[in-house]
Design brief:
Blueprint lengths: L1 H4 L27 H19 L4 E2 L2 E2 L1 E4 L4 E4 L2 E3 L4 H22 L2 H6 L1 H17 L2 H9 L4 H26 L5 H10 L4 H21 L1 H7 L2 H4 L10 E4 L1 H4 L24 H4 L20 H13 L6 E4 L1 H6 L3 H8 L2 H22 L4 E7 L6 E3 L3 E12 L5 E8 L5 E4 L4 E3 L4 E11 L6 E12 L5 E13 L3
Antiparallel strand pairs: 1-2, 3-4, 4-5, 6-7, 8-10, 9-10, 10-14, 11-13, 11-15, 12-14, 15-16
Helix pairs in contact: 2-5, 3-17, 5-7, 5-9, 7-9
Length: 476
């Protein structure tokens, strides 16, 4: 029974551990086309993330998710919780974009734009600047305690923590006006929830990018587990051309590797040293591979030095490697029916979402029947039903409204306030009473329709919304 729960015995007779101890990975820095693309996405995503809250649109923050007021401002668009359908559309677009990019070129998101990858790159850059290159970092970690080690470690963590808190502050700045938040931060007047989320998000950034790094990609991210369901043999992935590279082995630059019965791979292991997840791409596609292309960059550098042609490790497909396709043949097979279907659905959803936004009304209305007074007979010989209408002004200007009703004979609309004005991006509850003459209809439920209009100086309707409800006539 113990054999089930323990690993194989070692040579000295000691039992192995159930779980393999984590080995710290020291990625080597690398230069190349994919490294440039990766850092390009780092700069692009972080410029957007850190600068967007500081942009102004009119007299307010350009992008603000004001949870307290239940309004979401995205440049010139003001959304309410009732606009949840747009969030659904964004999620559908994100899902199909992920399916499309994965079907075309594997884990592009993971390797170039995922926040875990982006922040890990930034934290490793800080680490290299403080502690040195891969060899220096390994030597520093292995040496005994010293003043140099203490200073470098503490200085690195000081920079990590400062960057993490700045990241947490920026994140909260999307939900609280960032300029007000900045004043509160320096004056020490932040609310308890703001303090919690600044430090919670900062701690998550510090822990994930500073310590966990590849473990998030390998063990915590579910995408690595189900990626195989979206891959096929025409998906562009980081591949090692084993037919060209094997058998691998070291040799001098001037040696004829064909005469030595060797492949193009010089077995330098640099592709392993630069990998952020510590895998050997020469063993084939592995779920830990995030598709960053670092191994392809460093392999091309080695091929240049020894005078061999590039592309021993490259982005290609399994079919292309097996059939020795050219780049043009590979691309033709990449854009297969599966990709075209994903592209068509994605473009359709995007068109519907933007079309809906363009046709969206500048206000919203909710009609709620007054449960405390369903129907009653009032003075003057009328039957009255009471409703409450919530008018939400989604435009950034004051608007004047009027309320009409139809659906029954001799239907009258009674409103407490004659001047229905709703300020910019505000909402207002209006009590509306509908009257019909007593005896004009039999008891029962009758459909009625409210028409809420925006009107201008000439009293002409500019925009209107129609909402349905029912009118109750009690038993006589």
């Amino acid at each position: 029974m113990n054999d089930v729960f323990n690993a194989d015995s070692s040579k000295d007779g000691a039992w192995g551990e159930l779980y393999q101890a984590h080995q710290k990975i020291y990625p080597r820095s690398v230069q190349g086309i994919f490294a440039k693309w990766r850092w390009g996405f780092v700069f692009l995503t972080q410029i957007i993330f850190y600068c967007l809250p500081w942009l102004e649109w009119g007299q307010r923050q350009a992008v603000l998710f004001d949870l307290g007021a239940r309004r979401f401002y995205i440049f010139g668009i003001v959304l309410y919780p009732q606009d949840f359908i747009y969030l659904t559309g964004l999620l559908v677009i994100s899902a199909f974009s992920l399916f499309l990019f994965t079907a075309i070129a594997g884990r592009l998101w993971c390797g170039f734009a995922c926040p875990q990858t982006v922040y890990s790159e930034i934290f490793m850059w800080i680490e290299r600047k403080v502690e040195g290159n891969r060899t220096a970092r390994m030597r520093l970690d292995s040496q005994e305690f010293s003043l140099e080690k203490l200073v470098k470690k503490w200085y690195k963590h000081f920079l990590w923590i400062g960057f993490s808190i700045w990241t947490g502050f920026t994140f909260v700045g999307y939900f609280t006006p960032v300029r007000d938040l900045g004043m509160e931060f320096f004056l020490g007047n932040m609310s308890s929830w703001e303090v919690f989320w600044v430090f919670f998000y900062g701690f998550a950034t510090y822990g994930n990018a500073g310590f966990m790094r590849e473990q998030v990609c390998k063990y915590m991210c579910p995408y690595a587990r189900f990626q195989s369901a979206m891959f096929d043999k025409d998906t562009l992935i980081v591949t090692y051309d084993s037919e060209r590279g094997e058998p691998r082995g070291s040799r001098s630059r001037k040696a004829d590797f064909a005469a030595l019965n060797l492949g193009a791979c010089v077995d330098c292991s640099l592709c392993v040293q630069v990998c952020p997840t510590g895998i050997d791409i020469r063993k084939g596609l592995q779920y830990e591979c995030i598709g960053c292309g670092a191994c392809a960059d460093v392999c091309d550098t080695v091929m240049d030095k020894v005078g061999y042609s590039r592309g021993l490790v490259k982005f290609s497909t399994q079919h292309a490697i097996e059939n020795h396709w050219t780049s043009a043949q590979t691309l033709r097979h990449v854009f297969r029916p599966r990709v075209l279907i994903y592209s068509g659905i994605l473009l359709l959803v995007i068109a519907l979402l933007f079309g809906s936004l363009l046709a969206r009304k500048s206000f919203k209305v909710d009609v709620v029947r007054d449960r405390a007074s369903l129907a009653r007979i009032v003075s003057g010989g009328h039957i009255e039903n009471v409703y409450r209408l919530q008018i939400m002004n989604a435009a950034e200007k004051r608007q004047h409204f009027r309320i009409l009703a139809s659906g029954m004979n001799d239907l009258e609309v009674m409103i407490d306030s004659e001047d229905l004005v709703v300020e910019s991006t505000q909402s207002r509850w209006v009590s509306v009473r509908l009257h019909v003459p007593y005896g004009s209809a039999l008891s029962g439920k009758y459909p009625v329709q409210f028409t809420i209009e925006i009107f201008g100086d000439n009293e002409k309707a500019i925009e209107k919304i129609e909402e349905k409800s029912i009118f109750l006539i009690p038993r006589q």
